Every structure is written in C-alpha cells, then in structure tokens.
Amino acid sequence: MIFEKLRRFLRIAAAALLPLAAAAADYPAKPLHLIVPFAPGGGNDVLARLISTQLGAGLGQQVVVDNRPGASGITATDIVAKSAPDGYTVLLGFIGPLALSPALTKVPYDPVADFASLGFLAESYHILVVNPAVPARSVKELVALAKREPGKLNYASSGQGANLHLITEIFKNATGIQMVHVPYKGAGPATTAVIAGEAQLVFGSISSSLSYVRANRLVALAVTSPQRSPLAPEVPTLIESGVGDVDVPSWYTLLVPARTPVDVAERLSGEMKRVVANREFGEQLARQAFEVKMLPSDQYARFLKGEMEKWATVVRRNGIRAE
After folding, report:
1. What are 186-203's pLDDT values in tens digits?
2. What is the number of alpha carbons within 13 Å of residue 219 lying toward its C-beta?
3. Is the pLDDT of residue 48 over 60?
4. Is the predicted pLDDT of residue 280 greater than 70, yes or no?
5. Using CA atoms, how far apart are residues 63 and 296, in angstroms rounded to an integer?
6. Is this prediction's pTM over 0.85?
7. Residues 104, 165: Cα–Cα separation, whole Å
8. Distance (Å, rounded) from C-alpha 21 to C-alpha 315?
9. CA-CA distance, 202 to 153, in Å (whole number)?
C-alpha cells in the first residue's frame, strides 16, 4: 500500500514537471517582459532599453520594456516575485526596493528568497542639480541658502524610501540643513519636477540629467562619485565641495522569480554574459555613466545580504524614517 502511494506520487510529480521541461526546451517561444520599477526617463529606464535591445537579439525574441512605477519600486518588484516562474518575466532589480525599502518598511516579498539572479550587476552614481532660478552655483552656496531659509527648499526624489530619498536625507544630516521632501514615481519625473520649478533640487542620475545641464535647464553642483565623472569633468565631487559620507551609488541587477527552471535561467544568464562581453554595449553603458559586470549567483546573494545589512545600519544611524 505504501509503495503504491509512493509510485502514484512519483507519477504525479513527473507529470507536473513535464510541462516545465517542454517549456524549457522550446524557450523562448514568445516575447519577454522586462519589468522596470520606475517611470520612463530615469537611469533604470535608460539601462533597461539598452539591455532589451541586446538581449532580444540574442534570444531571437522581442524583450518588451514594461515600466511599472509605484511605491518606490516595491510594486514592480512584488509583481515579478509573484509572477509565473517561466522565464518570460524579468525584473530590472534596483537598490531601492531590494535593499533600501526593506530597511524602512515591511515589503511584501523576500528580496533574497523570492528571486533567482541572472548574474548581472551595473552601478552608477548621482549628480546634484538645481533649478536655474535657485541662487546657488555651488554646494557651499546651496547649504548657506538652506540654512538662511530652513524648510523653504523642496527636494524631489524617486519615491518614499527610494535611493534618491535616502541620499538626500544623508546629505541633509551631513550639512545640518532642513528641506521638504517631495516624492515622485521615478528619477525621470523627479528631474522634470525640478526643471518645472515644483521642487528646487534633486540628486538625479548622471545618465539622464546631463542633457538638461547642457541645455541650461538645470545647474549641476556636484557628483556623488569618489572622483569626478569623465562625462562631466567640470563638476566637482561632493567630497571636493566639503561634504563627505554621502555615497549611495545606484546598482541594478536582473532577476527572475524563484523556481524558474534552471536551464531557462542559465540561458538568460548566458545571453547576458554575451551582451556584457560585447564591446559596443560596454561603450554604450560608459556613455551613460554605468559600470557593469557579471556576478555569479552565490556572490550576488552575499552582495545583496551585505547591502541590506549596510543600509539598515545607515538608516538607523541617520534616524531616517518612512514618512
């Protein structure tokens, strides 16, 4: 009786696995969706569109960029965590919903257990820009202005608990100034708000902000990178400007839902290795201020856990709260 039940269980289990095996053998048989957790116009969107073109060419299927803004990236991240583990839904994972938001609030997914890594990691830094009407042309002048008129300046961010919120709060604490937080659904809308004068400043992505600086629609005061950016060598660093310990680089990764078939995940990871090795792709990323590498899955898990612990400590030390 026991052996008969065991045989029945094994037959059922094998039948359940057959569709996955067949799907993996034919993969990909339809377009993929690359879910981006913020609105178009920011660094996430720029990177996603570069990846989608190259990845689609290798897979022989279209990779559709699908922007799903909301809740500082938590909405899109949760959508992918709960989507079918078939390799057709890929997340452009981001530092905010994966490492920062969990330090500020309870998120509806496990950043480590609910995803499988494709081994891709890209990093970029930020640039502090102000509306041209702001009477400040240096970080020193901005800090002096904020101290003369505490609470008068509004700063835009990519959302409550997102990286641009955190970096500005650290900047406020480091300089002893007071400003009002105005959250938006991504770095693109936040930058647009500063151009329109709805807010006075933002720590925008270098990739999406420099064109506005060149067009005199924004004024650049400093970059957050340890050294000056080769894309804007005339802009000093925050450290040069007398403000240290404001280092919150953005990082991006590619994830699929946990339980995605191993061979499907390996196919996607292999294609990304090919993409990253492509010289033209590397040059495209460099022109957008991204640094990219492949990180084995076990190393990514250690990296993410380390990031979560680091930013939880930063949040506690700076007394940053979800508003």
Report:
1. 888 999 999 999 999 999
2. 16
3. yes
4. yes
5. 23
6. no
7. 11
8. 44
9. 11
